[in-house]
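Running log. JK asked me to keep both predictions on one page so they can be read side by side. First protein, sequence followed by its tokens:
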Amino acid sequence: MEKRRKKINRHVLSKRLAIAVLALAVAAAIFLRLTRETPAGAEADGRLILVNWTNPVPFDKPHGLVGLDEAFGDAVYLLNPEGSVNEEAGAAALAMFEAAKKEGVTGFMITTAYRSASYQEELYKARREREPGYGDDPFNNPVKVLPGRCSEHTTGLALDILAEDYRSADNGYASTPQGKWLSENAYRFGFILRYPEGKESITGVIFEPWHFRYVGADAAKEIYASGECLEEYLGQA
């Protein structure tokens, strides 16, 4: 009887051990998935914050803004020198423009950086007044102007970059020397082309070859190499 009891106890112990091992394996798999879907720095106000139709910005105004004139001086043409930008993003963009100049590409113009959510909402409402139904179905009919808290410009991490001799925010900018250089090199400085061609059904935004978003050097390199948009990179597509 005693031997049988010991045998049963060993069987129960083995079964419990197997369950524990399985639980650890499942936990490890979940952890790996979470770390892939939420890369380091994706905290609420970090470099990888996702702001889109389903993820409105969670704050009224971001920290760490500096004036555009302070960030860039006369290194690049500023359509609105009184505007502002995230300090880290501004420093990275300045390095980017300086590198472009060394490679023979100049004439960049920053048209927009930080916008308040309230101002962005005014722009969106004005667009809807002109075009009733604008933004009702963005994943099938992508837009150019987003609602207030759904715009990346409210983070201070996004820059609209055109050229002094090409000031139209349209597809043609992609063929300019400035547009080509940025699309091929911006990732080296931590920026991504935020709304790439072919991803409109995911982003809900038209192809915008002028809109660049700062995410940090490591993430930018990975996103550029993968061909993913930010939603895909963060596992939110």
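And the second, directly underneath as requested:
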Amino acid sequence: MKKKNKLLGAGLFTAIASSLCCITPVLALLSGTSGIASTFSWLEPFRPYLIGFTILVLGFAWYQKLKPKEEIDCDCETDKKPSFLQSKLFLGMVTLFAIVMTAFPYYSAVFYSKTDKKIILVNQANIQTINFNIKGMTCASCEVHINHAVNQLNGVTKVESSYKKGNTEITFDNSKTTVEEIKNVINSTGYSVINAKEN
């Protein structure tokens, strides 16, 4: 019993750890401390291993739960109802929680408010596009976090971040904001601007 609970605990821990780097930006946004967004980005290289371990642990737990019970020839009472922690319902809840945690990067955008803003262009010559190379982005949640923060700036017309390329391309009206202001906003999210170049 204790061994099974430790196994489930390990499965839950690895499920949470596998998405911690992606959950942190959302927690940072919700708590108003966006500077901690990239705190757990160092976990990203281990994500496939943590997910694999979670699957193995939960698979083994389900195997143990569903395998046929061995018949024991004894007169002892074996009809005792298992506790909630030993039930299939609890194992199902743990499995569902692990799936939700593991898939978090793919639906994290729902936690960010839409930034619908009307942009009035006075002079087309003021429109500038800058490509920022950024350190610390590891998943789609990081992209959304940066896009959300930069979109709050006045004059920004388009923001496209890519964790795979490690960059953010921003189109803005340079009469309303500056490259330095944009850089400061990106750095305030916990990610670091390595360099910027004009497109």
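Observation for JK regarding the second prediction: The mean pLDDT is 78.
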